[in-house]
Amino acid sequence: MRSLHTEPLTATAFAPFGDVLEASGDYRLINAGLCRRHHDRARLDFAPEVDAANRAGISIFQAEPRALPYAFDLIERHPEGSQAFLPMTQHPFLVIVASGPDAVPRAFLTNGAQGINLLRGTWHGVLTPLHAPGLFAVVDRIGPSPNLEEHRFSSPWIVLA
C-alpha cells in the first residue's frame, strides 16, 4: 500500500486546488462593530455554458467519521462547478486532493476552524471528517446534468498522521 502524510492546511499550499475558508486576514466590522466580515473568501464557479439551469445551492452533508491511518482508493471531481465544504462543528477534517488521477495525492488536515472550496474540476477524496457528527454545509452546483467523475486507484493509498 502506498502512503502519504498529512500536512497542515494553508492557503498557500492549497492554492492550486482551491480556497481555504477561515476567519483570518483582512475584515471589515459590521453589525455596530460586533461582527468581523471576512469578505468574498471563495471562487465559486458554476458552468453556465453547460446548462442555463445551473445555480449555486446549499446542501447539508452528514458523513461517517473516519480515523487515521485512513486508506482510500477513490477520488472524484466535479467538472461543472466548484464545491465548498463548511464544517458545522469545530473539528478537524481530512482533505485529499490531486492534480490529476495519475498524480500523487496530497492530504491536508484542517485545524478545526477552516473550511475549503475546491475549484471546478479538482480531483479530491470523499468528505472525510475525523470526529462525529461529521456535519457540513456544502455549497456547490445544482443543475440537471451529471457533475461527477470518479477514478479508482489500482492500489490504495494510506494517509498517516
Question: How would you describe the overall organization of this protein?
Answer:
The chain has 161 residues and is an all-beta fold. The protein has one domain: Ureidoglycolate hydrolase (Jelly Rolls, Sandwich). The chain has one helix and 14 strands; from the N terminus they run βαβββββββββββββ. Strands 1, 6, 8, 9, 11, 12 and 14 form a seven-stranded mixed β-sheet that branches. The mean pLDDT is 94.
Describe the protein's topology.
Elements: E1 2-8, H1 11-14, E2 18-21, E3 28-30, E4 35-37, E5 55-62, E6 70-77, E7 83-87, E8 93-98, E9 106-109, E10 115-118, E11 123-124, E12 128-129, E13 135-142, E14 149-160
Parallel strand pairs: 1-9, 1-14
Antiparallel strand pairs: 2-10, 3-4, 5-13, 6-14, 7-10, 7-13, 8-9, 8-11, 8-12
Q: Judging by the overall fold, what is the CATH architecture? A: Sandwich
According to CATH, the fold-level topology is Jelly Rolls
Structural class: mainly beta
SS element count, helices: 1
